[in-house]
Design goal:
153 residues, alpha/beta, Rossmann fold, 5 helices, globular, binds 4-nitrophenyl phosphate
Length: 153
């Protein structure tokens, strides 16, 4: 199973999603791969945001070695499942992918926890530290659901 987490900048939400899911994969002893990417390219090559790293570290997860990269059409071949953090991210993925957009591979991450509800993981970039903790809790719960749901299939 190869999973890609996608947000806009690949410095706040999706690096956290990658780190959290990687941690759960390790704990469960699963042979899965996880990576993350962003659609807007503004922060390519950068490490995750300081507060994203801080919140991850508080939960025993080190994401300092991650570097932001752009989502590309090749990712549709490489990954089995592509989780977008929010609806505007899915719109961007669709725009980048054009005819390669594969609906069966792309979903909102929160739909794993609350199927069909279409909830976004909000963008913490413009707010304070509290937002990063809230985002952690949402993504953590969604990643538990990803592991449980895929094990059931
Ligand atoms: P992310 O947050 O998509 O969760 O990484 C953002 C970070 C930076 C920007 C937008 C969203 N930006 O426009 O610079």
């Amino acid at each position: 199973m190869k999973i890609l987490m996608v947000c806009l900048g690949n410095i706040c939400r999706s690096p956290l999603a990658e780190g959290i899911l990687q941690n759960k994969i390790n704990e469960a002893g699963l042979n899965w791969q996880v990576d993350s990417a962003g659609t807007n390219g503004y922060h390519v090559g950068e490490a995750p945001h300081r507060l994203t790293q801080k919140v991850a570290r508080q939960h025993g997860i080190d994401i300092s070695n991650q570097r932001a990269r752009n989502f590309s059409t090749a990712d549709f071949q490489k990954y089995d499942k592509i989780y977008a953090m929010a609806d505007d991210v899915i719109d961007e993925i669709r725009h980048i992918a054009k005819d390669k957009f594969d609906t069966s591979k792309v979903d909102l991450i929160m739909n794993e926890l609350y199927p069909g509800e279409g909830l976004d993981v909000f963008d913490p970039w413009y707010g304070g530290e509290d937002g990063y903790h809230e985002v952690y809790d949402m993504i953590n719960a969604a990643c538990d659901a990803i592991i449980n749901n895929i094990n059931k299939k």
